Amino acid sequence: MNEQLTERLLGGEYFVVDFLPRRVPEDSGGNFFGIEKFFLDPPYSAELRRKFLNIILKLNCYYDVTAYDCLREHETAAPSPQQLSDLIMAADGLVYILIPSEDTLISVDTDDTHMTVFSSAGGIRQLMEQLAKSEGLFVWEP
Q1: What is the enclosing helix (H) or strand (E) of 68?
Q2: Integer Cα distance of 89 and 47 in angstroms
Q3: Which residue has the higher pLDDT, 11 or 114?
Q4: Pair 41, 138: CB distance under 8 Å
């Protein structure tokens, strides 16, 4: 994976695709950590990852992607839909999806209830909002 591009993107602008419409304030009276743990446990974790996978598969209709399995340090250029599914649905670690043509990096981590999208490209943000909405998810900036 292009380490210079990845490092630059990780240090830049980003937004999240989440099951909640906005950040939960620290002084919230709710039970965020209990709810987060609930969504990170099976079968709900698989449902959430399936939504993330659906978004990435739909993005792959528009853009060439490269997938990087951080746990195994393995890169797959132009992954098949099945390869993307295998990576994202696995319950073991961090996956980066790089879209070089849009200067975009998507981070999907099995320890998070959101995807992080590192990008300053306005066009992909608009598409991500539409795709997230189609999956019942939200896009917001931290």
Answers
A1: strand 66-69
A2: 9
A3: 114
A4: no
